[in-house]
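Hey, sorry to bother you again with one of my protein questions. A protein chain has come my way and I'm curious about its shape. I'm sending you its amino acid sequence along with the backbone structure tokens. I owe you a coffee for this, so here goes:
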Amino acid sequence: MSTQTILRKDLRQFSAFSAAFGEDQTPFSAFIQTPFQSIETLSGQAALKKAGYSAESRAQLVETIRSQTGKSLSEKQTANLELLENEHTFTITTGHQLTLFGGPMFLLYKVLHVVKMAQQFNESQNQFKAVPLFWMASEDHDVDEIRSTTLFNRTLTWETEQKGAVGRFSIDKEYAEVLSTFREFFASKEQCELLKLMADLPVKDYAKHYQYFMTELFSAYGVLVLQPDTPELKHLFVPVIKRELEFQPAFPAVEETNRQLAAAGLKPQAMARGCNLFLLDELGRHRIDPSQNGFTVDGVVYTKEQMLKLAEESPEQFSPNVILRPVYQETILPNLAYIGGGGEMAYWIQLKGVFEAHHTIFPLIQQRNSLMLVDGGTTKRMEKIGWELNRFFHPKEELRKVFLQENDEAQLSMTQLRDDFQTLRLSMISKAKAIDVSLESFAEAETVRMSKQLESFEQRLVKQVKQQHDQSLKAIDAVYDRLFPENELQERYFHWLNFAPNGDYSPLLEQIYEAIDPFEGGLIVVDLKN
């Protein structure tokens, strides 16, 4: 396996913010805890978090993870959970929606980035330990975010009618159908890792099903997987819930940060509301809107006292929105750093004031690695065409034109013909005027007709040349579509099993882990071992 790196700013698929934040966090210092440029920065954050994280919170967290996943943990995961009982052990966290079968590809990059960072931190000093943790966004209610994945040129979709927090969905008939289709891809490989993983997953509760899936998938790397939608953990969040209900400090904090971001030329990613909490029940998440008499939820009026009492007695009925979810995470975790995508970083830099308003320590944040995988088939096609990888970082149609120009420049050159035609055109108009001025418009009309014929002639030549190079052009298309499917980054489109078609995923995970570099801001291109 070999790797090379391409700057994000050189690829149109990355936003300007993603390129800038990945390269250097220093210009964003006003909006974050501190620039996270090296592994040594984690030690200072550990000392800060240690002073602000209670033993009671740690005990509850460990007990929750153990009760959720204890029977399915590997030796390495069990060891990490035992480490987490110690006050000198902290988490490094990433999280994501409960996407179908753990896709797309970048989900693997997120998790293995966290694993590699924890390992490097543990090797860099002896005072503290870090364990990797995956946060399940089980309360997210955007079904479209989780229902589909693309595998082997086929889109699989969970056509469920369920609403509300996706982690509370049941494994319905529609999920069973898409799961059956997913397994059929590997039916001829009965002993593959994937089918073994899928064999014993819980089949009623989607959150539990997904938690076991992720726990088993990353068992060799010691990743702890947390389902945070639990009464026990929500009780730790009660002070924040009550403060948000009583004083609504998040909205003005975000508004002020948004003004500062705009002044710095940055566009806010997320917008705060008056109250940044939902009420959560079996029918969905319901906005809590401040009103003159307290709050309204779907037209139902609650007094402030009623809401505060509900928070005290049943905090599991409250769900933080995008503004407060990170505060919930950092309240219940002994966390040092959060690793996320460019879009996540764009809203995290809006939240430092929210953390301060809710007396919560803001973590270090870092943009996850982006990878592009180049498999053996793609490499062979590039060799057949005679092009290096970097030539493919342009639009597909441009690539096709360049290839034809390079291989048939003499055949396709119309420069001399166009020059000759222009001379002929002027001569025709001049000759017509010399005979009779009234013929000038006739001559111009005739030359326009001839110009269209010349264009048709050129198109016919190009079509003929394309046919002569059809195989090469198809190879260009195949390479481009493997690297940038639907003009997207590969990591955002494909499920990772596209690169482990036999269902044995461990070799793929090992190569990705080896390629991960937590402090690399560019796109890491990985030439996979055949």
Notes: Residues 376-499 form one domain. The chain has 23 helices and 16 strands.
